[in-house]
Each structure stands twice: as structure tokens, then as C-alpha cells.
Amino acid sequence: MKEKLFAWLGGLGLEVTNMMALAIALGFIVVTSLLLHLLLHRILLVRLVGMIERKQQVWLPANLQQRLFNRLAFVLQGVVLLGQAEIWLPRGSESLEFIVVTTQLWILLFLLLALFALLDCVLFLSRRTQFGQSLPLRGIFQGVKLMGSILVGILMLSLLIGKSPLFLFSGLGAMTAVLMLVFKDPILGLVAGIQLSANRMLSVGDWLQMDKYGADGEVTDIGLTTVKVSNWDKTITTIPTYALISDSFKNWQGMTESGGRRIKRSVNIDMTSVRFLTHEEIVALKQAKLLAPYLSRKEQELSDYNQRLQEAIGNPINGRHLTNLGTLRAYLEAYLKASDKIRNDMTLMVRQLSPTPDGVPLEIYCFTATTAWLEYEAIQADIFDHLLAVIDQFHLRLHQSPTGYDMRSWSGAPQP
Question: The dihedral of CA 279, 282, 286, 292: what is its sign?
Fold first, then answer.
């Protein structure tokens, strides 16, 4: 084609010099490149994106689609420009060498950017699947981007200096220690991301608690070097990704998936108020519907046991009797089992802990039927509100450190 064009110009009486031939070739290459750019970016890509957006099922956001298609179009432009230069410019010329090197750098750059856009698209699509949500793919993809950037950077540098890429790769061995120091955090983060993914230790959306870094909230992002946690107080904590492998942390996702959230709280009972119940007190407590079956069963059991004793049972030490603290424990267990807000298929108990100088701790251990924080706190508060209000019916006292009000009452000073 080039020879025919120059022959046609010669037939018109125009002398085609080397300078004119170069100018014509460069002009044709520039015009072709501009027309191709307008065709791709102003017509084809606009219509393609518009056609995809008009469909009811859009598989990618418009910005991701446009970014990927634009970068692929630039790669195609580079390939066409490289082909045009090979056709129109004479071999061995400086202009051809310059355009070839520049175009190859252009193609490598936009191939790398197209790879970045493709990985972003894959990451977006993976987050719409349950499998993708359970894996920290963003950190792994960032590692792939880093490796791709290094590889493309070496190829581009080899083009600029006119050396084989193998020459540069051979020099990397001597710089291994320096590279390990420079890329220490990304390398550790990549290893940690793979371990987190393989062992399914953490995913975006999990509730993470890591007191060492002041993190207590929802994981919003797992990157190559950092993990971002949105705390419940609306602050943001960033944790080094590798710290999740080297240090311990608590993942509350198991609690969320189980559908029950644990209540584990105790109140301190004044030990001097613990005693046996009298017959009149037992009769009064039988008025409680939740407690009546327990008292009837327990009275029969204790009566049968005491009748078998040979010695006199006039002294309470010689027999078994109901205590007010044991009866309170039985009542609280029945109260929790009767509540539809407490899971009966999970551990449920009311137990005594070791006595302390502050009294006998009476602990409630159970699981709510919801994991929502507000509902959980409301259920827990209702349970202990009821416990504090009903404890006097069992002739027990709660332990409480003396307050200024108590001090004034002991001294006989007038109360405000």
C-alpha cells in the first residue's frame, strides 16, 4: 500500500523525498489513530455501555464496565498503532524504533490497568456470592496486582534500556534481601490473607474483637496490608493483616450464626441472709405458679428422706430442709425456661460461684433467642430487673457496699 501511494504521488509529478515520505507516514498514522480513538470511545463503547445499562439484569456497575472496556480499547489502539508503524515506516529507522518502544510501553501499561479492572470486576461479582463473601479475596487480589505491577515494571524497564528481561530477573537474586525489606508488609499480608482464606478465620461483615488494637466492631475491609474495622462507637480501627495470624482475636460470627447470644451475669447475695425456709414461708411461695411444682416435688422428696432418719429431726442439722437461696435458684430456672425470649435448646442454668468478701455470687447463664444488640440488652435488663424486685420474697438480701446515705443513717444524722 505504501509503495502504491508513493507511486501515485510520483505520477502526479510530485517528488517524494525521504522527509516527505516520513511526514506522510506519520500523518497517516496519526489520522488513523485519531479516527480509531473516536470510533472506539465515542461510538462503539458508548453504545455498548448504553445497551448493557438498558438491560434489566446489570452484572456490573457502569463505572467498572466503562473502566474495563476503555482500557481494553486503549490496548487495541496500541496494537493497531504498532501495526501501522510497521507498515508505513522503513525498517531500522529511528522513528520506527521510537514509536515501537513507546507503543509497547503503552500496551504493557494498559494491559496492566485492564488486569486491575478485571480483578475489580471479579471481586465485585464474588461479593455477591456466599462463597466469595466468606473469603478475604481483596487482599489476595491486591497481592496479584502487586506481582503484576512488578512484572510489568521489569518488562517496561527492559524495553527502555534495551536489555532482555532475563538480565533484570537475574539481578533480582542479589537484591532479595532489599526486596524482602521493602515489601515486608505486603508479603506478610499476602501470606496472612491466604491463611485467613484457607482456614476461614475471618470474613468481611464478621464481628471482630481485638483488645490489643482497640478493635470491637464489624470488619468492613480485608486488604493486603491492613484490616479495617468499624467499631460500635463509629470509630475506625485499622489492624495489620499479619497481626490476625500472629496475635489472638475473637470472632463473634459463630454467635451470630447460632442464633443465640449468651447472658452471663451475676448478683452478690448477702451470706448472712441465707437460711432454711419455714413452713409458713413455703406455703406463701407456693402461690407462685412457676415455683409450686418444684416446692411440691421437693417437699415430698425431703419428707421421704427425713422419715428414714433414726435420730430426732427436731434439730435442723439432722435433716434436709429447703433453703431460701436454693428455692430462688429453682424459681429463676423456671422463670427463664418459661420465657419465649430465652433459648431452651442451649445451655441454661442458675448457679452459685465461689463466695467472696462481697457475698455469694448467683450467676445466670443462658442464651437469648436473638443476637441483635438492642434486643439482647433489653432482655438481659428485664431478667435482672425482675430478679432484683423478687429477691425480697425469698427473704434474701443483696450485698452492696455502704454508701454515704448508709453512713448518715448509722450516725443518726438527718437524711436529706
Answer: negative
The size of the chain, in residues, is 416
As a whole number of angstroms, the distance between CA 140 and CA 273 comes to 62
Please give the domain boundaries of the chain with CATH numbers for all domains: 2-199 (no CATH), 207-253 (2.30.30), 261-404 (no CATH)
pTM: 0.60
d(CA 143, CA 186): 7
**Interval 97-134: pLDDT, tens:** 888 888 889 899 999 999 988 888 888 877 777 666 66
322 phi and psi, to 5 degrees? -75, 135
Cα-Cα-Cα-Cα dihedral sign, residues 16, 18, 20, 25: positive
Those residues with Cβ within 8 angstroms of residue 335's Cβ, 6 or more apart along the chain or in another chain: 290, 383, 386
pLDDT per position as a tens digit, 390-410: 999 999 999 887 776 666 777
Q: Which three cell numbers stand for residue 271?
A: 451470706
* Residues 203, 208: Cα–Cα separation, whole Å: 10
At which residue does the C-alpha cell 518488562 appear? 155
